[in-house]
Design goal:
Layout: H1 13-27, H2 39-46, H3 50-62, E1 66-69, E2 73-76, H4 78-81, H5 91-97, H6 105-116, E3 120-121, H7 134-143, H8 159-173, E4 182-185, H9 187-199, E5 205-210, H10 219-222, E6 226-233, E7 236-237, H11 239-249, E8 253-256, H12 270-283, E9 287-290, H13 306-309, E10 315-320, E11 332-335, H14 338-352, H15 357-368, H16 370-397, E12 402-404, E13 412-417, H17 423-432, E14 435-436, E15 438-439, E16 449-453, H18 459-474
């Protein structure tokens, strides 16, 4: 048998062997009237462990390609080559061969554990349910008449909601726009997906922050674009780095989360905001501004969005209600030039035929009334309490073992560990103790950091979570 396992490949050897045998079944190398080679023979032939061969045959059996019978060995399934000539597809090949890449394994692991297990959740970037404006939303749904459409709506979304967002961003974010320049999306994630898929092509170079939650997103690799990293310091990215990257790689687009950035919590300084906009205009590089947190300033100081400073139409602005109202509403939006919005709305129509009219109606009524302002004022107070608690707990339990800057808004705290540790082991040890966080390497090129999110738990749970994290760290 002319085949050898590729031990340098990322794909497990048992999967490589399974694909080889499957191909042999298809092309007749393994005839249907004879038993397949024994586990012992294959292990010897390819110098691999017998347990690897067992895993290979388990895989093929689960796909219905082979049958294992005591006494007669392993044979090709009769369901494939029998009278009906039925064949079970190799679903694993399809799963692994799709062009849309899966999340990183550690990201999948965090998501799985936060959904399935009752852990103290310092990983998820969403609000806890007690911070949702449930009473206001219940009042809207129970006392107000539904005036939206239950059929397919305008490609850009519910017109009344787009008009309300126009007033909302003018009042709260100093952005001048109109309803024709807004597209309603299923949260900010869909907005990013549409931008990448519709406005970039394979091989294009883009720039993202380092660290950045965007670092862990597979949407860039799935689209075949090349992300280059811009280091973030206490004042955000350095505009000069954008120029240098553009000289080397001809950057086509710049993705920024400039206000209470995820994960560092930092603000891009006003001086740097102006410089970025100047560079964007001089080089013709569009800026994608992701702004989930600008309304959560603990100091009460309003932060100017890049879009509010944009005089030339170079900024595509993305925001949502997910991080400040309720993630389950799935209401986000993109603001940009009409031609771009039309292109993105056409793509969204192909994906889901437009957004739910029911949730758009709820979002519209919530934004339009006093509910929103009252909710934001309360939310900021509660988040500040939780921020103060996590700072206090880190200082008490970890003392000089960590370094961090205190965020002035948002929901994330970026923490540097002075002790060198294996991130995977630290995560697993923490999970065993009932607390979960986001390892720093999932959000950037540097190791030795963790991201704690404090919006998901109350003060008591935050304190207990940091205590358990400390125990896990000390145990390594």
């Amino acid at each position: 048998m002319e085949w050898k396992p590729d031990r340098s490949a990322k794909k497990a050897i048992y999967k490589q062997l399974a694909e080889f045998i499957e191909e042999g079944i298809v092309n007749g190398s393994f005839p249907p009237d004879k038993p397949l080679p024994s586990e012992r023979l294959l292990a010897k032939e390819f110098n691999i462990n017998r347990s690897t061969v067992v895993a290979t045959y388990d895989e093929l059996e689960s796909l219905g390609l082979i049958e294992r019978n005591r006494g007669s060995g392993t044979t090709i399934s009769k369901d494939i080559w029998g009278i009906t000539r039925k064949r079970i597809p190799s679903w694993n090949r399809y799963v692994e061969g799709g062009s849309f890449l899966p999340n990183l394994p550690v990201t999948q692991r965090i998501r799985q554990k936060t959904v399935e297990d009752k852990l103290i959740n310092l990983a998820s970037g969403e609000l806890s349910e007690d911070l949702f404006p449930l009473n206001a939303l219940r009042e809207i749904t129970s006392t107000r008449s539904f005036i939206g459409s239950l059929g397919y709506d305008h490609p850009q979304g519910y017109k009344i909601l787009r008009e309300t967002i126009t007033k909302h961003v003018k009042h709260y974010r100093k952005i001048d726009t109109n309803s024709s320049s807004i597209l309603i999306t299923s949260g900010a994630q869909q907005a990013l997906f549409l931008v990448v898929q519709c406005l970039l092509k394979p091989g294009d170079s883009i720039a993202i922050e380092d660290p950045s939650y965007a670092y862990s997103l597979p949407i860039f690799k799935s689209a075949g674009v090349k992300p280059y990293l811009l280091s973030v310091d206490e004042n955000g990215i350095n505009p000069g780095d954008v120029i240098e990257l553009h000289k080397k790689h001809r950057i086509r687009m710049l993705f920024l989360n400039p206000t209470f950035q995820n994960p560092t919590g930092t603000n891009l300084s006003m001086e740097r905001r102006k410089a970025i906009l100047n560079i964007s205009s001089e080089l013709g590089i569009p800026v994608i501004e992701d702004d989930p947190y600008s309304l959560t300033s603990y100091t009460g100081e309003k932060v100017a969005t890049l879009k509010s400073m944009d005089e030339n139409g170079n900024v595509l602005y993305i925001s949502s209600l997910s991080k400040i109202v309720a993630s389950g509403l799935r209401i986000g939006w993109i603001i940009g030039p009409s031609a771009v919005i039309e292109r993105l709305s056409d793509a969204k129509q192909q994906i889901d035929f437009g957004h739910s009219g029911f949730t758009q109606w709820i979002a519209n009524d919530f934004l339009e009334a006093e509910y929103f302002n009252n909710h934001i004022n309360n939310l900021v107070k509660q988040l500040e309490k939780r921020r103060d608690q996590i700072v206090k707990s880190l200082q008490f339990y970890l003392k000089d073992k960590v370094e961090f800057n205190v965020p002035q808004g948002g929901v994330h705290l970026w923490c540097k560990l002075k002790k060198e540790v294996n991130e995977v082991k630290l995560l697993e040890e923490s999970i065993k103790r009932g607390v979960i966080f986001a390892p720093g390497s999932t959000m950037g090129s540097k190791k030795g950091f963790v991201r704690f999110t404090y919006a998901r738990e109350d003060e008591k749970s935050i304190d207990e979570g940091i205590k358990r994290f400390t125990q896990a760290l000390n145990n390594l």
